[in-house]
Amino acid sequence: MYSKPKKIGSIEIKNRFIRSATFEGMATEDGYVTDKHVTLYEKLAKGGAGLIITGYAYVQKSGQSFENQTGVSSDDFIPGLSKIAETVHENGENCKVALQIAHCGRQSRFLENTISPSAIEEKLTRKIPREMTREEIQGTIDAFAQAIRRAKEAGFDAVQLHGAHGYIITQFLSPYSNKRTDDYGGSLEKRTKFLEEIYLKSVDLVGKDFPIFIKMNGVDFIEGGTTIEESTEVAKRLEQIGYAAIEVSAGIWEVAKLRKKDLGWKPTFLPESRMFIGKMNEPAYNLPYAEAFKKVLDIPVILIGGINSITLVEQILSDESADFISLSRPLIREPDLPNRWMKGIGNDTVDCEYCNGCLSTTASGGLFCAKLQESNPYS
Ligand SMILES: Cc1cc2nc3c(=O)[nH]c(=O)nc-3n(C[C@H](O)[C@H](O)[C@H](O)COP(=O)(O)O)c2cc1C
């Protein structure tokens, strides 16, 4: 089942394994692609995933999340980005590559001054964003569309919008962070308008055949935030608008402040990357949300989060609970995991211990498994 090709929009993905977007921390100070990216994407392409999604690239300087994040906010970035696309195409037989694009909005530790649909304090950083003007919203919509055009020009096969985990798209979608009273806030239709306009503007630039898909939250895990009832309604609208697939995740950063007894699982520094799967937290922890999305959608549903064995992969696919399986941390430890599993080599389980040590490596110029410092597979 996992070796069976399936389409996302107009492109065929050779198997059901996707490398989920994973921030690299490898760009120059100005956001340009470096040789470190090339080495990383060469290993991943050789590892057998059918589709590789890059770490998030910022569409505007006002949306940069971290130092050494890749930029896609001007045409100057196109030559560097094209090296990533070329590397994947040259090293992975029929492997496809998507650029993930994002704007962090209110959720940035890096920026002094943040913007957001509404001026609601971000409880982790204690920063109060400035409410975006309508002109600024138009500027950000345009920046997303231009980023999609640049990705296509750089040779990417598709683009994924980062609409999960509390960044600006989540901020528009979520009633927790969007208190606007104009036509970008209020009803679910109005909160989805931002994504509708991004899609329509982008299609004018890249045509309907270039797949634009999205990662979004099944639930925000915050009181007053998006619920599964709402997110499935949003997903249906996105399908109608033309989005080609949906990767289902959950949580915003502020969840890290909540307690286990309120959530039923232990929140961590990045709530979307739950720790110690199988010991402290459940495997495939976003499965109920993906299943709810599958029930209402015809476009492919991608499941991410704590998928720790090939037996589980087979089960999810044969139950038709999701169409694709996405992996982030396990591929930091073992970039060749899809090939290893497909060839039946070694354990059924992943080697990754879900310790989240990889998160801090991105602050020191790389992305690698903290447990494998000496035998880093990307060096
Ligand atoms: C180091 C690191 C960087 C990440 N960067 C991104 C990112 O750029 N975009 C994104 O959508 N998710 C990002 N994530 C979240 C992962 O894509 C994924 O949703 C999460 O880790 C759960 O999947 P896993 O259990 O397979 O790791 C990151 C996670 C880690 C550990």
Structure description:
This protein has one domain (6-372): TIM Barrel. The model has no long low-confidence stretch (mean pLDDT 95). It is built from 12 helices and 13 strands. Strand 1 and strand 2 form a beta hairpin. The longest helix is centred in the middle third of the chain and has 20 residues, at 134-153. The radius of gyration is 19 Å and the shape is globular. The strands form 3 sheets. An 8-stranded parallel beta barrel has the order 3-4-6-9-10-11-12-13, surrounded by 5 helices. A two-stranded antiparallel sheet has the order 1-2. Strands 7-8 form a two-stranded parallel sheet. It is α/β, with parallel strands linked by helices and 379 residues long. It binds flavin mononucleotide. Flavin mononucleotide is lined by residues 20-23, 55-56, 100, 162, 164, 215, 249, 272-273, 304-306, 327-330, 358-359, 362.
Contiguous runs where pLDDT drops below 50 for at least 5 residues: none
Number of strands: 13
Main beta-sheet strand count, sense and barrel state: 8 strands, parallel, barrel
Mean pLDDT, rounded to whole units?
A: 95
Q: Encode the helix/strand succession as letters.
A: EEEHEEHEEEHEHHEHEHHEHEHHH
- CATH fold topology: TIM Barrel
How would you classify the helix and strand content by structural class? alpha/beta
How much of the residues is beta strand, in percent? 5-15%
Q: Name the CATH architecture.
A: Alpha-Beta Barrel
Distance between the termini: 33 Å
How many H/I helices? 12
User: Which sequence of strands runs across the widest sheet?
Assistant: 3-4-6-9-10-11-12-13
Query: At the fourth CATH level, what is the homologous superfamily?
Result: Aldolase class I
**Net shape:** globular
Structurally, the number of domains stands at: 1
Q: Helical amount among residues, as a percent range?
A: 25-40%
